[in-house]
Amino acid sequence: MSDGAGRKSVTSAQEHVPSLTTKAFGPSEPKTVTSSVQSVAWNARHVPLRVASDAASAACAAGLIAPLITILDRGVIENASGRCSLLSSVTASFRSLLTRPHTFLASRPFRLISVVYFSTYLTANSIDTISNTLASKSPGHTAPSFLKFSATSTVNMSLGLYKDSQFAQMFGNSALKRSIPTASYALFALRDSMTIFASFNLPPLVAPMLSKEVEKVMGRASLAQILAPAAVQVITTPLHLWGLDLYNRPGASLGDRARQVGKNWVGSTAARMGRIVPAFGFGGVVNAKVRRKLMEKVEGIERS
Q1: Are 209 and 223 within 8 A, CB to CB?
Q2: With contact defined as beta carbons under 8 Å apart, do 285 and 222 qualify?
């Protein structure tokens, strides 16, 4: 009885084991794994063409806006330091651009501005390309994200702070030969982070809120891309002026600084709106449209 029962138990166990093995490791499991892998497969086709498109669109946008931004940035700083009025500075710079364009375009201020905005646009474009590759989305897809905000803020602020320090030393109080105060850097960083957020993350949220009537003139997305970064300058311009005043007048009192910032606030805000609209408004639109057109060609190659 015991031997029979033992053989029966072994037989039963042997019959049971193949069943478990089949369910756990049989043909159905590889199909599930394969399906899972395919669902998260990278779309890495024509990555060099995507990267080239990102760089080309960033270069187009930066090249178009850099001359005006160079002129206005210099004007705001020279006006804040008392070297000359905003109008005089802007007039002299435009005259230089028109009469000696080769000298203007080869100048250090122009090169600094070009590097800042080319790098900023290229970073934003690259984040989209990396995200689309990893998520297997179309090359031209764009979306706001914390990663894009963080990356573009880091690049723009680090290069922008260096540019601001050089502009302040080139066009600020010529009697001063000292480094930029840490407090000025902090104010410039806060200014830039607010502008970047308004430029890259707010437009997709603002555009649906705009009336459809504006589409008779221009797209809501394009208008939001212009309005958002321009509007935030009302808040960020005092930060910019305060940072410059800390450098230009190191011994001024708090009240005196507030009066100086208030004195230059309206004109400087208008000038900074004038340079922000090209930088993150018009420049952002050009970058987005050129990139979209180039990515459509890449998608056409992928479909062929």
Answers
A1: no
A2: yes
Residue 42 contacts residue 133 (beta carbons within 8 Å): yes
What's the residue count for the chain?
304
How does DSSP classify residue 152? H
Which residues neighbour 86 within 8 Å (Cβ) at sequence distance 6 or greater?
Answer: 75, 76, 78, 79, 267, 268, 271
* pLDDT tens for each residue of 51-90: 899 999 999 999 999 999 999 999 999 998 888 999 999 9
Cβ contacts of residue 178 below 8 Å, gap of 6+?
247, 250
Taking a C-beta distance cutoff of 8 angstroms, is the pair 231, 202 a contact?
no
Provide the pLDDT for residue 276: 80
Q: Give the other-Cβ count within 10 Å of 285's Cβ.
A: 20
**Distance of alpha carbon 268 from alpha carbon 245, whole angstroms:** 13
DSSP string, 182-244: HHHHHHHHHHHHHHHHHHHTSHHHHGGGS-GGGGGTS-HHHHHHHHHHHHTHHHHHHHHHHHH
Helix, coil or strand: residue 22: helix
From residue 301, how far is each of 41, 287, 298 by CA, in Å? Answer: 19, 21, 5
For CA atoms 257, 232, 180, 174, give the dihedral sign. Answer: negative
pTM, rounded to two decimals? 0.70
Quote the CA–CA distance of 245 and 257 in Å, as a whole number: 7
pLDDT at residue 112 tops 70: yes
Q: What torsion, rounded to 10 degrees, do the Cα atoms 73, 77, 80, 81 define?
A: -170
CB atoms within 10 A of CB 251: 5
- For residues 110 and 69, give the distance between their C-alpha atoms in angstroms, rounded to a whole number: 9
